[in-house]
Write a structure and sequence with these properties.
rod-shaped, membrane, single chain, transmembrane helix, about 70 residues, about 0% strand, 4 helices, about 85% helix, transmembrane, mainly alpha
């Protein structure tokens, strides 16, 4: 899979950037859910955690791509 991503032109820096972006998006999702929805803090927490779990995946893909690039 990593080789196919590399062949498609995906760079490790992009995966790292996506990881950091997902951290920021996690905070934004939590804030917006808490302010816009009437579901309460529990639902906002779930949204923030859901989006926050993407970051380790992107960082792992970035590490794998970086190893493949060498």
């Amino acid at each position: 899979m990593i080789e196919k991503l590399h062949d498609a032109g995906v760079r490790s820096e992009w995966a790292y950037a996506a990881g950091f972006a997902s951290i920021g998006l996690s905070f934004v999702a939590w804030t917006l859910s808490k302010k816009v929805e009437d579901a309460g803090t529990d639902r906002a927490d779930r949204w923030g955690i859901f989006v926050g779990h993407w970051a380790p995946t992107f960082f792992g893909v970035g590490n794998a791509l970086r190893s493949f690039e060498k």
